[in-house]
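user: Kindly work through both lines:
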Amino acid sequence: MTSNITGTGVALVTPFDAKNGHVDYAALAKLVNFVSDNGVNFLVALGTTAETPTLSDDEKKEVVACIRQSNAKGLPIALGLGGNNTAEVLEKIRRTDFSGVDALLSVTPYYNKPSQQGLYEHYRAIAEVSPAPVILYNVPGRTGVNLSAETTLRLAREVKNIMATKEASGSLSQISYVLRDKPHDFVVLSGDDALTFPLMATGAHGVISVAANAFPRQVSDMVRLASEQKYAAAAKIHLSMMPLVDALFAEGNPAGVKAALSILGLIGNTLRLPLTAASKDLTARLEAMIKKL
């Protein structure tokens, strides 16, 4: 399966208006243009960073429509859609308009902690009904369950419509086994900004990045250099960005990146409960780092 979901993907935030809390579609369009003009390779709609659980079904449709309409460069789009009720996820997929969508990003079922066989059956069912190729999304720190290397590889080998994995397990060992044993056309993407460079040096194909919302040029340059095996130059960017990346996640995602985007004048610094905006101390730290950058 040939994939155009490689390189730097950006997990787009959802801007909200400070006065009424509504989605700020003008700011979202501005953000799409900003990241597109600064080197990212694909866009991710309705991921974790988008505060998707706080969006209504109508808002989700409008967010995707806004991203699609603002995508002047025609970048590939991955759509986040998942859940812990397989039958409900399948029904949502059937009802979703996949026009202009190049891939479906689906998180492992959360809270109910399925077995590895349950995870396999869940993803196989999704792949059978999805009109777009499927990206597995493993983020055990949020879901409470880890999609093992063995299950990832089984899905990659046995299920035709599964094209990639977004790995946010934080385990270099686990991801290394996937990279070693995967089918040649199966794409491995970092789901953790701090690990993107070491994973690409081991053979990963890119990242779905939070940091690229605010710093698309730096992330894109690092990923491009790593993909060209110019590791010394890529490492220089990676190392220079580490304190900033750590700060972005110091109080959770997307609090840090929304604060950074606000400092840059791209969106307002508003989140929906239960998430709250970054503290004054963290905002001041980010402002100082951004000035240096």
